[in-house]
Amino acid sequence: MADDSIEISVKGKWVRVPTFDIRGKKIAVKGRWVKVAYIHDEWWLETELEDTGACVKRLKEQRSVGLKADIFTFTQKMPGSLPKYQYAIEWDSVAAARTASFKDWWEKLPQESRKNVRRSQKRGAVVVVKSFDDDLVRGIVGVNNDSPTRQGVPNAHYGKTFDQVKKDHSSFLERSDFICAYFENELIGFLKIVYKGDVAAILNLAVKASHNDKRPANALIAKAVELCETRGVSYLTYGMFNYGNKRDSPLREFKSRNGFEEALTPRFYIPLTGWGKLSMKIGLHRGLLGILPHSVITFGVNARARWYNFRQFISRCSSMLERPNRIRQTECSNPPAGSKL
């Protein structure tokens, strides 16, 4: 068997997977048809893989004891530089904002984005840095339960218990900050930022849809950039800018409006088997988002959003039908029928 196992979060659920350790880094495997070995939590680590040769050797040895992989992949840390290795390379499209100067970042924002930060203040949102305690966890539970969907898909964190939420947000606490937006003592949004040397990364950003008029997301990002400048951090990253061939999404537009740009960083691929070599030649290692054309992805995303909206509509209708008739009648109009308001 593999050296060890760890729990990883997959679509909001914790599952245990086999791993092995090499110089303090956990190597795991994902994928069904093409099994890809990767460094667990690589995006959040402070250092790169030091000995790729030793790692490849261990991976080939692990094939006989249960941890089988066809391809090994790892990335080079930001800020970007020339590729260090001669392995097959592709480029990760990282969403990054320069944060050495808050003033420079602010002046490059679109006028509407600056207005949104000011609107947040004028409409009563207060942004502060909080320690990770039970009070904050309870607030995050409230944010999670504000809406059963996010960005057109089911919210994987909706309905989670206090203990589940606490576990979800307990990583990297020694080098993280929780930036919180409050309205009248109610947590309406939070951002978790992880520091890793000259670069910081947004690990979580969630706001209550019911308080979108207060623009908490814009205010949270502005505070994150301010913290980065104070700590001497040059870049703030927010996931990917382009996800494979998926472009022009609302999330990408939001990132652009808040000062994030595409930064290309090298990702290396090393085939470990004949199937791995063939998969790389025909592009299977990229997954569906890296294979399908943008038009097909857009059609699929829109169809999925319509399907979930339809399911929500049916669910609301069913809930109404299950209520007593006398209550339904008073809810048919807003204000209720017969009201003079």
The largest β sheet comes out as: 12 strands, mixed
Q: What does the radius of gyration come to?
A: 23 Å
Element pattern in H and E:
EEEEHEEHHEHEEHEEEHEHEHHHH
Please give the count of helices.
11
Which band does the percent of strand residues land in? 25-35%
Please give the number of β-strands. Answer: 14
Biggest sheet, spatial arrangement of strands: 1-2-3-4-5-14-6-13-12-11-10-7
Shape type: globular
pLDDT average, as an integer? 85
Model regions low in confidence, pLDDT < 50 over at least 5 residues: 326-341
What helical percentage do the residues reach? 25-40%
Descriptive account of the structure:
With 341 residues, the chain is an alpha+beta fold. 35% of the residues lie in helices and 28% in strands. The protein has a 12-stranded mixed sheet with strand order 1-2-3-4-5-14-6-13-12-11-10-7, sandwiched between helices. The protein has a two-stranded antiparallel ribbon with strand order 8-9. Helix 1 links the parallel strand 4 and strand 5. The longest helix is centred in the last third of the chain and has 29 residues. The N and C termini lie far apart (71 Å). The C terminus is likely disordered.
Brief overview:
The protein has 341 residues and is of the alpha+beta class. It contains eleven helices and 14 strands.
Secondary structure blueprint with pairings:
Layout (H helix, E strand, L loop, with lengths): L3 E7 L2 E10 L2 E6 L5 E4 L12 H11 L8 E5 L12 E11 L3 H7 L2 H12 L3 E5 L3 H11 L4 E2 L2 E2 L7 H7 L7 E8 L2 E11 L2 E9 L8 H16 L3 E6 L9 H8 L3 E11 L2 H9 L5 H4 L2 H29 L2 H6 L11
Parallel strand pairs: 4-5, 12-13
Antiparallel strand pairs: 1-2, 2-3, 3-4, 5-14, 6-13, 6-14, 7-10, 8-9, 10-11, 11-12
